[in-house]
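Dear colleague,

Thank you for sharing your sequence with our group. We've completed the structure prediction you requested, and as agreed, I am returning the results in plain text so they can be pasted directly into your records. Please verify that the sequence below matches your submission; if there's any discrepancy, let me know and we will rerun it promptly.
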Amino acid sequence: MTDTDYRPCVAITLFNNDGQVLVAERNDVDEPCWQLPQGGIDAGETPAEAAFREMAEEIGTGSAVMLEEATTWVTYDWPENVDRTPGKGRYRGQRVKPVALRFTGDDDEIDLNTAHPEFRAWRWVELNEIPALIVDFKRPLYDAIVEAFGSLADVRGTRG
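Please find the predicted C-alpha cells below.
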C-alpha cells in the first residue's frame, strides 16, 4: 500500500466567529449524513488552494481566510459498499489534509445550489460534535480534525 493508492483530498473545517464549524448534509444518501466540505486536490494545487476551490464549488462562497493547515495527512479506506466515484476505481480510499478556515461572510452567502449540488442542508455545530455526525469509516479523520483544530474552536468574539 502506497500513497498512490489514495486520492489526495482536503477536508475543510470552516469556523464561524462563534467557534462553530459548518457541516453539510449529503444529498446522495437517504438517511441523515453530515460531513465537512471536502474534495480532491488537483495536480499542481496546494491543500489551501484546493480548500478554497472546493468551498466555492460545494457551498457557494469564497468568504474565508486561512487559519491553519494540519501538520499530518489522515488516510482512510472506502468500505466495499461505498460508491468510489471520486476515485473511479483507481483508489482504495482517500489521503486527507485537514485545513481550517475562518468564515468572513454572512450566513446568507452560503449557497448549496451550486453547479453540481452535493448537499441538501447545512448548519453550524461545535467542533467536538463532528465525529458523532460522520460515517464510521471517516471517524478517525474527524477525531484528528478535533485534535488538530481544537484550540481554534475558542474564537468567540473575534472578528477578522
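Summary note from our side: Residues 3-152 form a domain with the Nucleoside Triphosphate Pyrophosphohydrolase fold (CATH 3.90.79.10).

Kind regards,
the structure core
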